[in-house]
Specification:
heterodimer, A: alpha+beta, four-stranded mixed beta sheet, four-stranded antiparallel beta sheet, 3 helices, B: 524 residues, alpha/beta, Cytochrome Bc1 Complex, Chain C, two-stranded antiparallel sheet, 9 strands, 52% helix
Chain lengths: 178, 524
């Protein structure tokens, strides 16, 4: 009977080893065979909106010498509206703020939307929410702030299992396919 | 709550016993890997280190997918080294979970063992995190999936303002710095595991970190053969702008991915936190009151000869020798109640019977035998006077079967707690034989009970079974789960053998002090 036990042991050991290998060889479904997506990914430094006023002589005199700045500005980062429409149907409409507790860091745009493969009309807008009349401040230009109005309206053929990536290249929205 | 914990412990214990029984039917119980789960996990860490060191020589952070593909394509060493590394990871986690279940089922997670339990939970967690970084290193489609799943969870934590997920968006190549950091973590985590393992066994005397040689080599050879026959799969190189329909998958390390897919990261974190909280709470909810069966050992300094044997035998290092506060020249044993788990091993190590949990010292055992067992041995023929001393952890069915064979059953918490004077007393006062059946040595809830008992009965380890005791009338054996029939057959053979011997004269008037030489020197 010893040989029988050995055979059973070998079979069981083989089954356990096969189970170990099989647990590594399972194919796990992920996106499906007919998936495609529109992905937006860029970093946008928001404009700074400031309200400035000149301090009076009395106000300046009250301050210590090293804090006597003639002009005082209070400001915040601009917010932006992102809207996406695929084949004329609105997919996303939301307001984005800068990262960080004070929203003074860059805006990190990262959005992914499943779309059906094939030719799709994609319309994307990224515009400043706060009204503006004057041109962008030179300081903002120097800091590399994102343009106030970005738009992309195009028809793209997205193959199956592919991602159409929209990113910010040289101050414009650009589309990239694999 | 207490009843739920107790029910879970019992269920775990029964499940493991059923698995043990199955294993013992096909394999020698000495090599039951379920008994060796802890040592197997520790040993696999060494296998992972060796194979990992080899793989790291050929890994390139600048071209992760290509370098791993090159390793996988090398038929001589690379392919199976990588697969052994991968399968050993799976086996490590499986072994660690079984080890945890066994410890939980045997109620060995509370009190001074809490550190071992909590560090064990941390080791499994770090092991999973290490596996995560390992899959990302390969940077195939599964690595990409694992990375994205992890990044999604990380991004909800208020740590970085820029989402980590953006690294994998595809608008720029994944930076080498990311893979360098990942590699750094993949090497750093095993170092942490080394520290964790040290913590895990730091309160254990004589920790065993390697399984028996046949199991050790069988495991290594088995892993190599498996790696050659069925190499671990490697998916196509990750491409952020592709959406693979499927990915390879690893069940033991990445079972959480399908569960987390499509669910809110906050929900996933909540579930993870709950699981961790429950795991960490185990030592507290399974804690026993330090009274009755769980009262810590105490030393009677009047009886202690300072021989040091209890400090050597204590599996938890809970006993130290300290100077006496009287005029005797020896040291005296001192039990640290915070380290004592009340296993009772020390009770059997002390020749003068001066140490042990209250109610379970050698002296208490003799009193118990005299009042409960000896009266039953006064009558009947030799066959009806064979005492079977059984560990409380053995099968209930075994007790019933031995009882049906006419054995006088005497149950002890662990055979390692059985003072050899009990065996001598039984034989001198009517028992025709003493059959002692314990758990397999690597399955002992008191860690070293069967080992010490064998040395005390057959190899003169203190407190040894005296030379005057006829060894033909004593049998020490192992009663593995599921093999009650074999144990009963062994008992029947032993009973028949002792019945055939001349029956000893019953000594009615034994002074306890005669059983214990050092006691004669001690004023009690």
């Amino acid at each position: 009977m010893i040989w029988l036990r050995r055979v059973v042991l070998l079979v069981l050991g083989g089954l356990a080893a096969w189970g170990l290998a099989a647990s590594s060889a399972v194919d796990l479904p992920w996106h499906g065979a007919n998936a495609a997506a529109l992905r937006l990914s860029w970093v946008a430094r928001p404009e700074r909106i400031e309200t400035c006023r000149d301090l009076t002589r009395e106000e300046l005199d009250e301050r210590p010498a090293h804090m006597r700045q003639a002009r005082e500005c209070v400001g915040a980062s601009a917010t932006y509206r992102l809207s996406i429409a695929v084949d004329g149907q609105p997919a996303v409409e939301r307001v984005l703020r800068g990262a960080g507790l004070r929203n003074d860091r860059a805006i990190f745009v990262l959005d992914e939307h499943p779309v059906a493969p094939g030719a799709r009309r994609v319309a994307i807008r990224f515009t400043r929410v706060e009204p503006f009349e004057a041109p962008m401040d030179s300081t903002d230009v120097r800091r590399g702030a994102v343009p106030r109005d970005l738009a992309l309206d195009t028809v793209v053929t997205i193959p199956s299992t592919a991602v159409a990536l929209v990113s910010l290249v040289d101050g414009r929205l650009a589309l990239k396919l694999p | 709550m207490v009843s739920l914990v107790g029910a879970t412990e019992r269920l775990t214990r029964r499940t493991l016993r059923a698995l043990d029984a199955l294993m013992h039917r096909v394999a020698d119980w000495r090599l039951n890997p379920l008994h060796q789960s802890g040592t197997i996990a520790a040993y696999l860490l060494a296998v992972l280190t060796v194979t990992g060191l080899y793989l790291i020589l050929f890994y390139r952070v600048g071209a992760p997918a290509a370098s791993v593909q090159r390793i996988a394509d090398d038929p001589w060493l690379g392919s199976w080294m990588r697969s052994v590394h991968r399968y050993a990871t799976d086996l490590f986690l499986v072994a660690a979970v079984i080890h945890g279940a066994r410890v939980f089922g045997q109620a060995r997670s509370w009190g001074p063992r809490a550190r071992a339990w909590i560090s064990g939970v941390a080791l499994v967690g770090v092991g999973l995190a290490c596996a995560w970084t390992g899959f990302v290193m390969a940077w195939d489609s599964f690595g990409q999936r694992v990375a994205l799943a992890g990044a999604r969870l990380f991004d909800v934590l208020p740590v970085l303002s820029e989402p980590v997920t953006r690294i994998f968006a595809g608008d720029r190549p994944v930076p080498s710095a990311f893979f360098f950091l990942n590699l750094f973590v993949h090497i750093g985590l095993p170092l942490m595991m080394g520290v964790g393992l040290w913590l895990h066994v730091s309160k254990v005397a004589r920790p065993v970190l390697a399984p028996p040689r046949p199991l050790r080599w069988g495991m290594v050879v088995g892993l190599i053969v498996l790696a050659i026959v069925l190499p671990a799969p490697l998916g196509p190189a990750a491409d952020p702008l592709r959406l693979p329909a499927t990915t390879p998958f690893n069940l033991s390390t990445s079972w959480w991915i399908p569960l987390a897919d499509g669910r809110s990261p906050l929900l996933v974190w909540s579930v993870v936190s709950l699981v961790v909280a429950v795991a960490v709470a185990v030592p507290f909810v399974t804690r026993r009151p330090r009274e009755g069966s769980f009262t810590p050992s105490v030393v009677d300094p009047r009886l202690c000869t300072g021989c040091d044997q209890c400090t050597q035998d204590c599996p938890w290092g809970a006993i130290t020798m300290v100077p006496r506060d009287d005029d005797r020249p020896t040291l005296v044993a001192l039990v640290d109640p915070a380290l004592c788990v009340s296993c009772g091993i020390c009770a059997a190590s002390c020749a003068p019977m001066g140490v042990g949990p209250d109610g379970r010292t050698g002296r208490h055992q003799l009193v118990h035998i005299r009042s409960r067992v000896l009266p039953g041995l006064r009558t009947g023929d030799a066959a009806a006077r064979v005492v079977a001393v059984l560990c409380g952890q053995t099968d209930v069915a075994l007790r019933a079967q031995l009882g049906a064979e006419g054995a006088v059953i005497h149950e002890v918490p662990c055979i390692g707690t059985l003072h050899t004077s009990v065996i001598e007393l039984l034989l001198r006062q009517g028992a025709s034989g003493v059959f002692v059946a314990g758990c397999p040595p690597r399955d002992c809830a008191a860690r070293e009970g069967p080992k010490w008992t064998e040395l005390r009965v057959y190899h003169d380890r203190e407190a040894e079974l005296q030379a005057r005791v006829d060894r033909r009338r004593v049998l020490l054996t192992t009663a593995p789960a599921g093999l009650a029939g074999a144990t009963v057959a062994e008992f029947v053979a032993f009973r028949d053998a002792v019945v055939a011997l001349d029956q000893p004269t019953v000594e009615d008037d034994i002074d306890l002090r005669l059983l214990c030489e050092p006691l004669e020197k001690t004023a009690v």
